[in-house]
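I hope you will forgive my troubling you with a question about protein structure. I set the record out below, with my sincere thanks for your time.
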Amino acid sequence: MSTTIDSNVVTRMNQGGPSSRDASQSAELRNNFMTLLIAQMQHQDPLNPMDNHEMTTQLAQINTVSGIEDLNKTLKGITSQMDAGQTLQAAGLIGQGVLVPGDRVLMETDEEGNAHTTPFGIELGQSAENVRVTITNASGQVVNRYDIGSVKAGVESFTWDGRTTEGETAAPGAYRVRVEATSGDKTLNASTLNYAVVGGVTPPDGNGGVKLDLGAIYGQVGLGDIKQIL
């Protein structure tokens, strides 16, 4: 009677994920092994006893599989706790204004004709001596271009006053913002950020982390896309 375990089964279980099928296979394998081991010990030939090395190796394989299963369960539990924590953190952003990658600026006027625009942001890898902002309309025509001076490295938010180069109030609607950052004669990498309001949260679904709903225009983004909370 042999206690040899199919190595392919053990290998497959080691490589597989923490599925209920693998757990069932492992439990069945352990039970079968112990049944065979006890039977062999009871019926072994005293003149030709069991190979202790082979038995020890097979026991080690069983323990390895059990250890991997326990580790998978622990990791799954940690992942669930992290997902729950991220969902709770994201829920706290509902109703908050945030800056995310993008270049849109929305402009409207009140009853008195005063302009109101959404903020925009600039993300720099290093400080710039000067940043030039260019505002264009839906047709790509330049509405205004102005300098805002030096900007520190990191993320900073700004607002356009809603006026054209001639000082007139621009027409209500959506505009694009483009930035050019320089330090001396060197052009720096600069990213633009646009404003959006978090309207809802979608919990992790197994294909990704928590998603924040920014509405029909901006869609959904991850927590990592939030550059600043306003």
